[in-house]
Design brief:
The protein is of the alpha/beta class and about 220 residues long. It folds into two domains: about 90 residues, Cobalt-precorrin-4 Transmethylase, domain 1 (3-Layer(aba) Sandwich), CATH 3.40.1010; about 110 residues, Tetrapyrrole methylase, C-terminal domain (Methyltransferase, Cobalt-precorrin-4 Transmethylase, Domain 2, 2-Layer Sandwich). It has nine helices and ten strands. The strands form two sheets. The chain has a five-stranded parallel β-sheet. A five-stranded mixed β-sheet has the order 6-7-10-8-9, sandwiched between helices. α2 links the parallel β2 and β3. It is elongated.
Amino acid sequence: MITVYGYAGEPSGQLRDAVASAALVVGGQRHLDALAVPAHLRIVLGRIGPAVETLAALDPALSAVVIASGDPLFYGVVRRIRTAGLKCRVVPTVTSLQLAFAAVALPWDDALLASAHGNDPAPALAACRVHPKVGLLTDPTVGLPQIVAATAGLGRTYVLAERLGEPDERVRVLTEQDAAAIGEIVQPNVVLVLAHHPDDPAALGEQAPIAGGVRPTQQELS
């Protein structure tokens, strides 16, 4: 049985128990180290392909644990595992974007959520230019500097949320000028791109029956 666990900050007791009895544990280096997974039982995630191949070859009678940052169903490893024809059980947690919106007390049901992590960043950066509230998963090559460059002159406010859930978590609300001049940025991080400062009532947005701020026309509904 393959069980995929979300991970945000500290590992749960349930995850620790599952790892202790697993025949194979797949995850990022920091996750595996935090759980003290023995070297002979661990697969460090880089490219997901080799890990999926190893999971497919594992005796189905043995238990395997896959650890994913945030919610493994949101731009996570579950899609890749299921695409390979493997069955799995999922124990989710909140996404890093949920934690970022919570850090500045902003509803996110009207936000557009995007990922530049391992994807072509162009659509995500374009979304930041046109949508008033965007939550963006970053990666080491596409992060705050690239987002600021793509939205220059639009008066956006940026929320840089680093190492969410960790003891050294840091969340900063930045103007375009501040964001352009920022120094070191710690991985992992996510960025919220907002048309209004989080303390501006306009940033709260409006509750709509369809999440993501999408408002279909009457013609589309008929």
